[in-house]
Amino acid sequence: MKWKPLLLLVAVIVSFSKVHADPFEPSGFPSLVTSLKLATVPDFCGEEVPIGEQHVRERLEKELLLSLWNRPQVILWLKRSKRYLPHIEEMLRNEGMPVDLKYLAIAESALRPHAHSRKGAVGFWQFIRYTGQKYGLIIDDRIDQRRNIFASTRAAISYLKDLREIFGSWTLATAAYNMGEEGLMSEILEQGNNDYYHLYLSLETQRYIFRIIAIKLILEDPARYGFYLDEEDYYSPLHFDQVSIECADETPIRIVAKAAKTTFKAIKELNPEIRGHYLAEGNYTILIPKGNSEDFQARYRNLIRQWSSNQQERIYFVKEGDNLTAIAERFGVPLASLIIWNRLNPRSTIHPGDRLIIYPQKPVYVDIDNETNSNGGAALVNDQ
Fold it and tell me: Residue 150 CB: number of other CB atoms within 10 A?
C-alpha cells in the first residue's frame, strides 16, 4: 500500500511530460554538418577558393566549424560590424579595392581598437610599430594611431596595395599581411609555387585565409548559420563631428570634453589613439559627439583661458630617500593624481633631482558658463 502514492506520482509526471513534451521553441540553430554544405563555390576578393580539392575543403570546414562553435564571439562580430565596417567599406571602395578586405580587420582584432598581441601588434589592423610607422601612423607614448579606425585603415590599404603589387593576387597579398612579405617571398621561391592553397606555410598563415573566408560566409548570411539579429541589436554606428584644436601647451582632455559638451570617457572612446590624460603641445583633429561642434572653438578658447589662469602648480625636486607615496602624502594629494600629472608609470623609479609637478589639494573646476572661476583649494608650499 505504501507504494501506491509513489506510483501515482510517477504516473502523473509521465502523463504531464507526454502532454507537454515540447514546451520550448526549437533553438533554430542549423546543425553544424548542414552549415558546411555550401550552395556555391566561395571566393575571396573575386579569387575562387578551390574547395573541390579535399585538403582545401577540409581546411575551410575546420575554420568555419571553429568560428560557429564560438557563438558569443560571432555575435560580437555582428554587433560591432555596423559601427566600423561601413567606414572601412567606403575607404576600400574609394581606393578601388575589394570590400572583402574588410574581413581582415575582424580576423585581426574582432574590431577592437585596443586589441594587443604578444608580438606587439596593436589596434584594428594589428600593426607592429615598425610597419605602422612605415605606413605613416603616429606611434609614441602620447598618440597611437593604430587604434584609430580611419588612420589605421588608410595604412592597411596602403600596405595591402603594395603587397598586391608584389605578389599579383589578393590572396597572396593577404597571406603576406599575416606573415610578412619577405617570409612569403622566400617560401614561394624555395617551393617553386605561388599558389597560396598549395604552399606549405606556417600553421598560422595556412589557417589565415580560411579563417577570413569563414568570417565572410557568416557575416554575409548570418541567418543561414542561426544568427538572427534585429536592427536594434547592432551597436550604433559611429556618429561624430570633426574639430581641429590647437594646444599651445599640454592640455587636459577634460578641457576638450567640456568644450565638446561631453565627458572625458566619450572623447577617449571616439579617439582611442589618444594615450593618457593630456594632449601634448601641437595641432590635432579629433572626433566629438555629433552635433556638438557648433561654437566648440569659442568654448574651447574660453576654457583654456580659465584653466591657464587657475593653474597653481608647484615644482618639487625629489630628494634622497623620497618615494612617490611619501611625496603624495606630504602634499595631501592622491598618489594616482601625482602619477597622472607627471606622466609616470606606477612602477616608475624616481631619483634625487627629478622634477615633479604638483597641483593644489582641491581641484579647480572649470565652469563653461562663467568667465571667472574661484579657486577654493589651498595653495601648496613650494618645497624646493
Answer: 17
Per DSSP, the three-state class of 39 is coil
List the grid coordinates of 67. 568560428
Read off the pTM: 0.77
Q: What is the pLDDT of residues 350-380, one digit of tens each?
A: 888 787 777 766 544 444 444 333 333 333 3
**Burial environment of residue 112 by CB neighbours within 10 A (0 to 12, 13 to 18, 19 or more):** middle
Domain 313-384 is of which CATH architecture? Roll (3.10)
Cα–Cα distance between 28 and 241 in angstroms, integer?
41
Cell numbers that stand for 88 in this block: 572601412
Place of cell 576578393: 45
Calculate mean pLDDT across residues 210-231.
95
Give the separation between CA 42 and CA 40, rounded to whole angstroms. Answer: 6
pLDDT at 334: 83
Would you state the pLDDT for residue 4? 57
CA distance 262 to 269: 12
Task: Kindly calculate the radius of gyration of the chain based on its CA atoms and give it in whole angstroms.
Answer: 29
List where CATH 1.10.530.10 sits in the chain: 32-233
CA nearest 209: which of 49, 81, 38, 36?
49
CATH of 32-233 among 3.40.640.10, 1.10.540.10, 1.10.530.10, 2.40.370.10: 1.10.530.10
Contact 29, 75 (CB under 8 A): no
In terms of residues, how long is the chain?
A: 384
Whole-Å CA distances, 121 to 129, 131, 140, 203, 292: 7, 10, 14, 19, 34
Sorted by sequence, the CB contacts under 8 Å of residue 122 that are 6+ apart come out as 114, 115, 116, 128, 132, 144, 146, 147
Rounded (5°) CA angle 47-185-193: 60
SS3 readout for 343-356: CCCCCCCCCCCCEE
How do residues 104-154 score in pLDDT, each as one tens digit? 999 999 999 999 999 999 999 999 999 999 999 999 988 999 999 999 999
